Amino acid sequence: MELRQLRYFVAIAEHGAFSKAADKVFVAQSALSHQLAQLEDELGVQLLLRTRRGVELTEPGRVFLAHAISILRQTEDARSSVRSALGEPSGKVVFGIPHSVSNALALPLLQAVRQRLPKVELELTEELTGNLIPQLRTGVLNLAVLFDDGHLDEFTTLALLSERLSLIGSTQSPALRVAKSITLKKALALPLILPADPHGVRPTIEAAARKRAYPPPHVVADISSISILRTTLLAGMGHTLLPVMPLRADLDAGTLKAIPVVLPTLQRVVSLCASKHIPISTAATAVAQLTHQLVHDLCKEGAWVDASPIEGNTTGFTIAGRTAKT
Fold first, then answer.
1. 314: pLDDT confidence band, cut at 50, 70 and 90?
2. Alpha carbons 19 and 17: distance in angstroms, whole number
3. What is the rounded distance in angstroms from the CA atom of residue 257 to the CA atom of residue 175?
């Protein structure tokens, strides 16, 4: 198996056609087909199907694609780390962010990387947390922000902040019109619109209900998209339990209202994660360090509302021979 075969296979999968892939990798289409055939012979499976619409991945092809992307990315990370070992960090870093964190972190992180790490190419991908985990596990992502629900042992983690959850809904909701806060038990009994299990805050909410022997949340709709969730809340179809940042614009405009959940307070821990088994590049190390400091600053400045930085983290988020500064 050769790296060029992996590059060719990924190009075909991404472009859905041999002709477009051949142009992308600058080889003849016949050479592309020959290398793919050799790769399939070595693996003993068919990776691609030719159809009238182009090329489609087989099930083994979908499995192999994640590994091929990971291998190629690690190869490039190794090159970048060696080149920048004695100088400024450089190279590409693929960073996964959940939908409910993107509004708070994405733009400030892009701006900070551009300003402080000019030779680093940051690629942000916004996904459901349940989708980020397998991508981080296989190396498709270098870093990802995940919610620590006690099941992140397979990753190296650095706790960034603790974020309070609120009950959010239409300003016309009777439960929100006058109250300044609401107990968890009462909130769980309201018609709720929550991310589908196991995404986002859903595990945190259900664990809190089980711990106190409360009935499970009264979920009227499973919606994992922030934009769709927003429209359903504005339409008065129910409430949600979330931090305020994903819906801050509507809350500031007065079209939605939020009140804190109490007895107990609901919180989620936001952590920065990396694979324990895949070496991480110098560039990713620098981005991890920058992210930790940036989140701390956003919390202290009040830009990340209802969030508190987790201080004194000395657990040792060690990557590429360095430890993220705390």
1. very low
2. 6
3. 10
Parallel, antiparallel, or unpaired for β 120-127 and 192-194? Answer: unpaired
pLDDT (tens digit per residue) in 157-197: 999 999 999 999 999 999 898 889 999 999 999 999 998 87
Three-state secondary structure call for residue 151: coil
8 A C-beta contact, residue 239 and residue 232 = no
Contact status, residue 226 vs residue 233, Cβ threshold 8 Å: no
Q: Would the pTM of this model clear 0.85, i.e. be above it?
A: no
CB 223 within 8 A of CB 229: yes
Torsion on CA atoms 177, 179, 184, 189, rounded to nearest 10? -40
What 3-state DSSP class applies to 319?
strand
Long-range (24+ apart) CB contacts under 8 A made by 171-179 are 171/254, 171/255, 171/256, 171/257, 172/236, 173/236, 173/239, 173/257, 175/239, 176/239, 176/257, 176/258, 176/259, 177/257, 179/259
Q: What token pair was written down for 177?
A: 């019109």
Task: Give me the domains of the chain, ranges plus CATH numbers.
Answer: 3-70 (1.10.10.10), 88-163+268-323 (3.40.190.10), 166-265 (3.40.190.10)
Which of the 8 DSSP states describes residue 239?
B
Q: What is the structure's pLDDT at 81?
A: 66
Distance separating alpha carbons of residues 195 and 192, to the nearest angstrom: 10
